[in-house]
Amino acid sequence: MDYFHGYSVVGLVAVLGVLFVAVAFGAGRLLRPVVPTQEKMLTYECGVDPVGEGWAHTQIRYYVYSFLYVIFAVDAVFLFPWATVYAAPGYGGTTLVEMFVFLGFLAVGLLYAWKKGVLQWT
């Protein structure tokens, strides 16, 4: 009986959460004024009136910067568990080699991005 008690509490909290969201959305729909006008139907982006085509060209370098950030964020996340395993007895040399291999892959990726000129902003 205790085994299913934990699941019933989680299920009850989930049902209450879904019910709360449904009631909040329903109340918002009933209480808000609905007066559509031509100005309200315009696309709104950061306070700038829409001018020209709907398609805007984005430079690829912004995506590359985000990918580089993700790579180094993963590196930072990987360092914390590595440090705890490195401190455990009997794992020092093995984990040190693994970390240098991992950092080597990251260094090769960074070197490739640098050679391709991705890291230059201009």
Overall pLDDT confidence: 81
Q: Roughly how much helix do the residues carry, as a percent range? A: 55-70%
Number of helices: 3
Radius of gyration: 26 Å
SSE order, one letter for each helix or strand = HHH
How far do the termini sit from each other?
A: 66 Å
Structural class: mainly alpha
Itemize the secondary structure elements and their pairings.
Layout (H helix, E strand, L loop, with lengths): L1 H30 L29 H27 L4 H24 L7
Q: What's the short story on this structure?
A:
The chain is mostly helical and 122 residues long.
Could you characterize what this model shows?
This protein is 66% helix and 0% strand. By secondary structure, it is mainly alpha-helical. Helix 2 (61-87) packs antiparallel against helix 3. The protein is flat and about 70 Å long.
Which key phrases capture this entry?
flat, mainly alpha, single chain
